Amino acid sequence: MSELLKPLEAAQLAGVSYPTLKQWIYKGKIRSTKTVGGHHRIARSEIERVTGGAAKAKRSSASKPVGLDSISGRNKLPGIVTELRYEGLLVQVTIDVNGHEIASIITSDAARALGLKEGVRVYALVKATEVMVIRG
């Protein structure tokens, strides 16, 4: 019999968020079993079925990406710092990303720790309502 996983474990194995996995359960995309207490459990084989075997490959993979490689490619925009405006505790960082300007407000301490100055290569990380800066 296939190992039963908690939804959070199943989501991690499938490479999706916990809310996404719960939606899959509610929409019938993935089959689950309920415990006596009403909690969902998902068979490992069910995750492998839905992911087309990718979950099996993930499980056998010894290393997970770390650092910049662990961030989604579509959210990571390489660019060059074109302007820094210090204003007390904050800095407005302007980044040229392929001819488009992106501005981010970060702390002065963060800008100093990253060694930011005009011409430095950085990444703009876009996540929901914020833009973060990582030195490239």
Structure, explained:
With 136 residues, this protein is α+β, with helices and mostly antiparallel strands. It folds into two domains: 59 residues, Multidrug-efflux Transporter Regulator, Chain: A, Domain 2, CATH 1.10.1660.10; 66 residues, Beta Barrel (OB fold (Dihydrolipoamide Acetyltransferase, E2P)). 29% of the residues lie in helices and 36% in strands. The strands form two sheets. The protein has a five-stranded antiparallel sheet. A hairpin with a 2-residue loop joins strand 5 and strand 6. The longest helix has 10 residues. It is elongated and about 60 Å long. The protein starts with a strand and ends with a strand. The model has no long low-confidence stretch (mean pLDDT 84).
Features:
136 residues; alpha+beta; Multidrug-efflux Transporter Regulator, Chain: A, Domain 2; OB fold (Dihydrolipoamide Acetyltransferase, E2P); 2 domains; five-stranded antiparallel β-sheet; three-stranded antiparallel β-sheet; 5 helices; 29% helix
